[in-house]
Amino acid sequence: MFISLWEFFYGHFFRFWMKWLLRQMTGKCELQRIFDTYVGAQRTHRIENSLTYSKNKAAILFLMGKQTYQKGR
Asked: What is the pTM of this model?
């Protein structure tokens, strides 16, 4: 129960504000920070998690294996 609540609040509220705050402090987007900080499998895992939590339709479709995304369709 607690884990489900945490996932909901993290995915819908906390993550957005954390990303915004880090963006303001560092001047880099989330993927740039991941790329600069981690190497190898850790980097790959963190990028996959970032895309999983993304609200961007193109990123979600790419992660699902549909590499073409056309606006308006």
From this structure: 0.59
